Amino acid sequence: MTTQTLDVGRPLLRRRPLRLPWRGGLQGSEYAWAVAFTIPYIALFLAFVAYPVAFGAWLGHEPSLYAELAQDPIYQRTVVNTILYVGIAVNVKMFGALLLSGFFMQRGWWVRALLLVFVLPWAMPALPAFISIHWMLNGQWGLLNNFLWNVFGIDGPGWLDTSRWLALGWVILSHIWKWMPFWTVILLAGRMAIPQDLYEAAEVDGATGLTRFTHVTFPLLANLYLVCTLLSTIFTLGDFNSVYFVSGGGPALSTHVLATLGIRNAFEVARPDLGVAAVLTALPLMIPLVLILMRKLRTTEVTL
Amino acid sequence: MSVAVADLGRGVDAVSALSAERGRRARRIRRWKSVGAACIAVLLLVWTLVPIYNIVMVALESKGDVFTNTIWPDQPSLGSFWIVITEGYWYLEHFWEQFGNSLYIGVGTVFFTLAIGSLASFAIGRMRVRYGWVLSNAALLTYVIPASFLAIPFYRIMQIYGLTDNLWSVIAAEVTFATPYAMFIFHQYGVSIPIELDEAARIDGASPVQVYWKIYLPLMAPALVAVGTYALLLAWNEYLYQFLLLSSKESMSVPVALAQFFNSDEAPWNYMMATAIVYSIPPVAIYYVFRRRMAAGLTMGGVKG
């Protein structure tokens, strides 16, 4: 079973599978059928992935576009924002998920009930959630400032429209709020797959508490944690909704990230080439990530 | 010898004293642990529920209440929901049509994702068609490209295909991004189904189509349910592509209409939040109903020991 999993996606020449499915190879019409079965996917891929990718590359091939971007202060801020956003959001979210997955390993009905509530942000669509957060942070009528005023008598600031860093911070928090439950569930599944007798053996050897985590749990989870972090980095890099609905790129276009700036350039400024160029500047970060991930996803049984 | 016995006695005393001390310590630790767990639980509840509380609260406010400084509406009412259901506000005049559009996109996405994904996985994983690995790599690559990065050229392509403002352009987009995940799951699940079943059927003279239809698909049912749920939620929740590709009020889906509402200057927030809740209920319900079945797909394998 395992060897088969590992084999798929590699040239068959490299390692002979133990059992050849459809022994004796495909014959005559069978081969035609097999090809026919793949045609819908090939057509889908060519029409809606390969063609747009090639078209995008063609749109963004002019070097002058990148010179134009480099001089644009909005773009410069966007790059800084993207790095901060991805770096902070991914790591806080994944580390929080790692800790919380341990918390949810506890027994008891209330833990299970809490987990059901905790996954609600993930279960609900992004749009209503972020619209709600946007309004909650409204300086004049939002829930947060109403609460601060009614309980502490403090007049809170406009959380999203006064300071760039404040707004970016809220965007990051909103993203973590929405996506941490998902990764917690994944890491929880990873923890559950660790056989209990490993812990029993470790306990006999005197490992408890932190040592148990560093010597048993984490080594076994490390690969999953790495794959999840890489995937989450790519997903976060492409996350459009958090920024678009929570801060809207404001105040004064200071909290855009590459994903939202690309759309803005293409559709609000009506410069699709500039939008594509902005997105393409993420490639130096994307390509190594994608290569490592594809390798990892092919050889590990991680399912997301 | 007597000394030795006395020593032993003392030793026993010391041990029992030690174990009593240990028991007390263990109880103390356990108490602190449960207090800590309770604190974490309360923090998690607050963290999770505040934005949800906000959305419900605003939806329950009557028109005058939205712009006040209260943290609970003075006169909570379900009036906003009634307005949404009866399309009683000009921004909502096509609400049910848009709801139907979202549903149409969802069902179309599920059907094509399952059909295209399972056919390709069958050919690659079970029949081992030559160069199948190229296809699985292509799917994997699509899975790790952020959809938002492809949106601009995708929009231009749809113009070239003549599909703008057409629900099928959105279905094409959602299927494109759901199928790689489907192939991934189908492949992993398919490994657990003995290949001998296919061979036995083949020896009995079944054609590949019959093997696919009568053996592969029925045995893959759990994976089909998991992937179908995933595709439905993806299509229902996705915003960017629907926003770019659908422009007229009649062809819009609910999230696009909601965002248009959000971006307008004169925003009746209570109607908007009520719309948002009505829009959120189906995916949340589906999620909780199919949670276990989705988990079956999600966690298969989990980590490799």
Describe the structure concisely.
By secondary structure, chain A is mainly α. Chain A has helices spanning 2-7, 29-59, 63-71, 73-103, 109-118, 120-123, 126-136, 143-152, 164-192, 196-204, 209-237, 241-247, 258-268, 272-280, 283-299.
Task: Characterise the protein shown here.
The complex is a heterodimer of chains A (304) and B (305). With 304 residues, chain A is mostly helical. Chain A has 15 helices and no strands. In chain A, helix 9 (164-192) runs antiparallel to helix 12 and helix 13 (258-268) packs antiparallel against helix 14. Chain B has 305 residues and is mainly α. Chain B has two domains: 2-60; 81-299, MetI-like (MetI-like fold). Chain B contains twelve helices and no strands. In chain B, helix 3 runs parallel beside helix 6 and helix 4 (132-144) packs across helix 6 (167-190). The relative contact order of chain B is 0.12. Chains A and B meet through helix 2, helix 5, helix 6, helix 7 and helix 8 of A and helix 1, helix 3, helix 4, helix 5 and helix 6 of B.
